[in-house]
Amino acid sequence: MSAVLSVDNLSKSFGGLMAVMGVGFEVAEGEIFGLIGPNGAGKTTLFNMLTGLTRPSSGTVRFMGQDITGMDPEVIARLGMARTFQNIRLFGGMSVLDNVRIPRHALGKSNEGAGLWAGVFGTKAAREHERDALERARSLVDLVGLSDRAEAPAASLPYGARRRLEIARALALSPKLLLLDEPAAGMNPSEKQDLARFIRDIRDRFELTVLFIEHNVPMVMGLCKNVAVLNFGELLAVGTPEEVQANPAVVEAYLGESPDTAVIKPEVSHA
Ligand SMILES: Nc1ncnc2c1ncn2[C@@H]1O[C@H](COP(=O)(O)OP(=O)(O)O)[C@@H](O)[C@H]1O
Ligand SMILES: [Mg+2]
């Protein structure tokens, strides 16, 4: 198993505040990897550094063997890394379907293989690629159970459906690695179970590697092969759920008395 993602000694300081300090871990191909830690631990900052939204102060990010540290988000996305956001980011006024169609246009993938001239002159090949993109978007909308709302504005969807739509949009980029920032936030236990099943399903179907942030400890433990625990910007532990749950530093700082039932308070959202 080769590492899809390899993070080495990664740090970010905002002014004097060390949001992430010397964090390192590896995510193997095909695994579902969990990132947990209390509010303010640096989880989103870490995601932002992996996806190019935040430039690391120091350290290295390797994606499929390539050093991507400090690259632009669009370049990293094109290499095959897609994400969702803690605060859902959709084009609320656009239809469900158009939200899923956007990324491939944005990345210029709708004309893949058709060449520049095809794009410019609208050749048959370009039209075919356009049609393929539409079909693909429809099948992704179907996959997340929103076919009957395909023409509705994204903003009109209930919360859980918007979360699923955001995942569909990330999948439209045909990623190798999918990063989910608290996809289960605000969901009830049965919705969380559905989401866990869905994450496993898309991992299998699209041969993805998944890295996700979650506060609900039982969900992480049930779904992930490996887990990293962040606390005040530092990596407390990384390992299998069993190893991490048995780690005294983790128990003390994060899990409290009863790891089986520990649920960390959802964090207040900030942009
Ligand atoms: N753009 C920023 N400017 C200044 N401080 C920030 C910024 N983004 C995050 N922080 C701070 O970095 C710390 C980690 O935040 P964050 O990565 O959002 O944590 P988490 O996602 O684990 O809750 C917090 O103290 C937060 O206030
Ligand atoms: Mg966060």
Features:
271 residues, alpha/beta, Rossmann fold, 2 domains, six-stranded mixed beta sheet, four-stranded antiparallel beta sheet, 10 helices, 10 strands, disordered C terminus, binds adenosine-5'-diphosphate, binds magnesium ion
Describe this structure in words.
The protein has 271 residues and is α/β, with parallel strands linked by helices. The chain folds into two domains: 1-81 and 216-222 and 229-271, Rossmann fold; 92-174, Rossmann fold. The protein contains ten helices and ten strands. The chain has a six-stranded mixed beta sheet, sandwiched between helices. The chain has a four-stranded antiparallel beta sheet with strand order 2-1-4-5, with helices on one face. A hairpin with a 2-residue loop joins strand 1 and strand 2. Helix 3 (96-106) runs parallel beside helix 6 (159-171) and helix 5 (124-143) packs antiparallel against helix 6 (159-171). The longest helix has 20 residues, at 124-143.
